Write a sequence for this structure.
């Protein structure tokens, strides 16, 4: 009797094991069919996103935001200082970006940015990252977070300057910007990135008349260089540099950052806020969580997301243009960074300028796309980086007629690779097309602007 019971038990266990193996086999076969039914580019992309990076014996420790050790020396072009005359305050801003090798982040990068032609001014480096494991902060804000922050802070600066011109006393100024970004069939040959709309809220508290404030805001809008760059078609002059003598000074190296806090001259230039913060007047789109087996697959090619930035005064009587910016990232956390401006010929900003953030964010965004496109194509390369210069022009400074423009973006993608010229050209063109920030500049971007005066909307 005992033996029969044992044999019966073994048969039951055998059936259970066979059933379990059959179910697992069906799942594996189904997953395999699903995997190989995807375009090769999509498989490459997903593998890139989940694979761990190479580990290194040592890493350079960076602050998220810090001063550059020396002036920038791009190898693809000669940086040219802007020429200003009476009533003008022109500036050219250069950026060099390169990936930072890190085993926990395949999207960590560093941008070195500098306003050219200012004596003894070396500019700043910015760490950027995209995505992190749940509960873990990335190594820095995203490229588009810097881009959006520069847009908000640059308008904030112009409002302060316009108030000085019109002798309007402002009790408080806040600028909220939300940029809506979108990929359009990113995996396909014709895939592109877009900045669909930039939503701007200007919040003013002042005892001045609404008419006077409205006229002051019109002056500020005309002087808003970053805004002019977006709402008009900006000239972009791109170039691809293959296997040149461009790698002696700049190469990507293993690096990390031990803290989200960056301290320069006792000012905390970057940190993650204790709790996520949201804009006061901007409505944020909340995406429903995808609980499918492969949540990245359905929406990756047509991903939509918003990035916001809130620019407020830092409350410094000595530096009226010093601003505190709260910004969102593709992850759940919000960061706080600082921005400052030049206040004279012998003055040095204590934080990156608004246009340095905007310019660096543009170049860092393109660097992200070169990374993703290279992964998608399975491109074999040794090294790559991006070098940019944006030429800004400001006229009639200090008058009600002041105007600002972004004249030209000079953009260079440098790569060291033995791939065919045809493949490298495809890599280059696809990277440019997918860059949200660059497409926002290249095309005229819709802007939805609302002015609040003492809590009321001013039409």
């Amino acid at each position: 009797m005992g033996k029969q019971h044992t044999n019966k038990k073994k048969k039951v266990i055998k059936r259970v094991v066979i059933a379990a193996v059959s179910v697992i086999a069906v799942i594996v076969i189904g997953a395999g069919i699903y995997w190989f039914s995807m375009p090769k580019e999509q498989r490459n992309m997903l593998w890139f996103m989940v694979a761990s990076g190479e580990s290194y014996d040592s890493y350079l420790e960076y602050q998220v935001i810090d001063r550059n050790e020396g002036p920038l020396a791009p190898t693809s072009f000669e940086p040219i200082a802007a020429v200003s005359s009476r009533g003008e305050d022109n500036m050219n801003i250069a950026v060099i970006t390169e990936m930072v090798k890190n085993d926990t982040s395949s999207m960590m990068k560093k941008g070195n940015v500098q306003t050219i032609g200012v004596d003894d001014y070396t500019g700043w480096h910015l760490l950027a990252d995209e995505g992190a494991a749940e509960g873990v902060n990335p190594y820095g804000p995203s490229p588009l977070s810097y881009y959006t922050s520069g847009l908000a802070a640059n308008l904030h600066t112009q409002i302060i300057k316009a108030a000085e011109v019109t002798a309007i006393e402002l009790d408080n100024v806040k600028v909220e910007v939300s940029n809506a970004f979108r990929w359009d069939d990113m995996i396909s040959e014709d895939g592109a990135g877009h900045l669909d709309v930039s939503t701007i809220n200007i919040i003013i508290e002042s005892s001045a008349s609404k008419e006077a404030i409205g006229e002051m805001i019109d002056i500020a809008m005309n002087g808003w260089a970053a805004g002019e760059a977006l709402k008009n078609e900006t000239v972009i002059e791109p170039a691809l540099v293959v296997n040149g003598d461009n790698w002696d000074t700049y190469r990507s190296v293993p690096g990390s950052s031990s803290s989200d806090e960056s301290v320069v001259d006792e000012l905390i230039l970057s940190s993650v806020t204790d709790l996520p913060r949201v804009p006061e007047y901007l409505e944020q789109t909340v995406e429903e969580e995808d609980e499918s087996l492969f949540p990245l697959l359905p929406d990756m090619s047509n991903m939509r997301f918003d990035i916001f930035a809130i620019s407020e005064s830092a409350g410094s009587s000595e530096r009226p243009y010093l601003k505190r910016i709260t910004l969102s990232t593709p992850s759940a956390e919000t960061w706080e960074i600082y921005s400052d401006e030049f206040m004279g010929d012998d003055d040095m900003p204590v934080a990156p300028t608004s246009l340095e953030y905007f310019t660096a964010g543009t170049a860092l965004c393109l660097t992200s796309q070169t990374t993703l496109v290279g992964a998608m194509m399975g491109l074999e390369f040794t090294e790559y980086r991006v070098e940019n210069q944006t030429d800004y022009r400001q006229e009639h400074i200090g008058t009600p007629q002041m105007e600002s423009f972004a004249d030209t973006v000079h953009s260079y993608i440098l790569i060291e690779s033995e791939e065919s010229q045809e493949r490298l050209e495809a890599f280059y063109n696809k990277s440019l097309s997918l860059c949200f920030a660059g497409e926002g500049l290249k095309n005229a971007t819709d802007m939805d602007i609302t002015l609040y005066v003492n809590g009321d909307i001013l039409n």
Summary: Residues 2-37 form the longest helix (36 residues). The chain has eight helices and 18 strands. The chain has one domain: 56-286+294-458.
